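Supplementary material to the annual report.
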Amino acid sequence: GQSLEQPSEVTAVEGAIVQINCTYQTSGFYGLSWYQQHDGGAPTFLSYNALDGLEETGRFSSFLSRSDSYGYLLLQELQMKDSASYFCAVRDPGAGNMLTFGGGTRLMVKP
Amino acid sequence: ETGVTQTPRHLVMGMTNKKSLKCEQHLGHNAMYWYKQSAKKPLELMFVYNFKEQTENNSVPSRFSPECPNSSHLFLHLHTLQPEDSALYLCASSQTRDTNYGYTFGSGTRLTVV
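Predicted assembly:
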């Protein structure tokens, strides 16, 4: 079967750096995506990694290691508005090429 | 607004009611999706439409019935639901079903079955 594991909750302070890990077990793999969802809001696309390495977009970076079936989202210079849930998702050709999502990590940023 | 609009935002319905959820996008996307989001569970894919054709039905009970009259609109018809069907129902769209780019989600319909 397919599964994506990520921590359920992470707490950090404003200005800090936080890393949200995601390990996946899927029959196939095309890429790892990250989405952000504020309470009551729509999930919004943050990043996509198809190849190993680090992709940086402003304060957010995403990393992938295909050999370890592992990735992470790195958030720097945390702001209060970063408090949200973060989901990793894998595009799996063994699952009709659909996105399979992790359970989400709830990030709480404190002053 | 993300470009994907869902109505209504909130819905309370009895187990014998019939209701419909609506999703609309004018992003020029050709694939549309219904996801179910329950507390403390991963997003569950329900249905996929690609160029108006249903390509996936993820073992969803027949009390949920999708309809895609054109590539801009997607409906989810509900009838004789159960309390465990209470959840946030999210619609999403993407350029095509096989895109490597992100999905655009709507803000969802919060459904409560009483």
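Chain A touches chain B through 26 residues (CB under 8 Å).
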